[in-house]
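Researcher: I'm preparing a figure for a lab meeting and need a structural model of a single chain. I don't have an experimental structure, so a prediction will have to do for now. The sequence is pasted below. Please return the structure as tokens so I can convert it later.
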Amino acid sequence: MSLPLPPGSYGLPILGETLEWRRDRIGFLRRRYQRYGPIWKSATYGQREITMLGSEANAFILSTHRQHFEWGGGHEIFFDRRLFGESIFLLDGEEHLHQRAFILPAFHGRALRGYFETIRTLCGEYAERWAARGEIVATDELKQLTFEVAAKLLLGAETREQSAWLTRTFDAFGRGMTAFPRWPVPWATYGRALAARDELHDYFRGLPRISRAGVSATTRSCPT
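Model: Understood. Here is the structure written out token by token.
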């Protein structure tokens, strides 16, 4: 016996509600929340889905009933295997826990305390630049600041040029998550994301080699 699905709509054939979601993601969620409540069905990127919003939903999915959900089947709509490979977002069970345990130490209290000076310095530099310019696009500037912090602390960037290159390349890579259609050609968003992924792979492969050679990994050169 199949249980009834939540209210909602699958939208157009094939496209579903993809176009509306891409135009205004926050508005898309808000309108459906107002119409259907915290749980509804939809379809985007060729996949039918259930959306659950709120703290109770988070606890249900991530804690109390997490054994009934899998990462791979849900995340693959965005973390496309052709683009991301076997990303931690697509792994389940022991393999997911193993990969997560490998990553988490970089975000624990002791490590975070060590990041403070770099974050403080970068925030001060950006604040001075913003004050000198008088007017800024806050979302763009905060995105750049956030990524420069990550580039310096987690990705081995030492210079502003390296941080800028990593920011541009990761941005092109990230756009592949929501590219539609996903055409693997150089002039398409998805094709540029695949090229950016390859450049990032080359960059990260170089870091251990430089380290083994006795040179700081942060001196890794980036394409311009």
